């Protein structure tokens, strides 16, 4: 008996949440439509524009300049080693002044321990 009530409640809750997510999705679509309409009206267009007309090909000299620039950049990239991000930023160096260990001290290799 209790189980039946629980199952019924669960079912109702699931139906409610499904309904809610459908509502949210519909609201989202409506909002997108509204924004699209606003953009079109700002542009004084009744409908989204179609594809732009095909562009004429680039003049040969422009194309040659583009090609040579690209080739130059490729050569430079080949000559230069890849940039290491660690090399790009300034580094903080820590310097520890050290004195050579004296006779019989820790590093001194005397064969005895203290
Ligand atoms: C530029 O390079 C393309 C291929 O990358 C080539 O088809 C074209 O003929 C070149 N144009 C000129 C002007 O060098």
Plain-language structure description:
The chain has 114 residues and is mainly alpha-helical. The chain has a domain at 1-48. The protein has 3 helices and no strands. It is flat and about 85 Å long. It starts with a helix and ends in a 26-residue tail after the last helix. The relative contact order is 0.03. The mean pLDDT is 80. Bound molecules: 2-acetamido-2-deoxy-beta-D-glucopyranose.
Annotate the secondary structure layout.
Layout: H1 2-42, H2 60-79, H3 85-88
Bound molecules: 2-acetamido-2-deoxy-beta-D-glucopyranose.
The site of 2-acetamido-2-deoxy-beta-D-glucopyranose has 4 residues, from helix 2.
Protein name: TGF-beta propeptide domain-containing protein
Organism: Otus sunia
InterPro entries: TGF-b_propeptide, TGF-beta
Ions, cofactors, ligands: which are bound?
A: 2-acetamido-2-deoxy-beta-D-glucopyranose
Strand content: under 5%
- For the secondary structure, the number of strands is 0
Task: Summarize model confidence as the mean pLDDT.
Answer: 80
* Tally of DSSP helical segments: 3
In helices, the fraction of residues equals 55-70%
Order of helices and strands: HHH
Low-pLDDT sequence parts: none
Shape: flat
How is the main sheet built? none
Q: Structural class, from helix and strand content?
A: mainly alpha
Radius of gyration: 37 Å
Distance between the termini: 81 Å
Protein name: TGF-beta propeptide domain-containing protein
Pfam families: TGFb_propeptide (PF00688)
GO cellular component, one term: extracellular space
Keywords: Glycoprotein, Signal
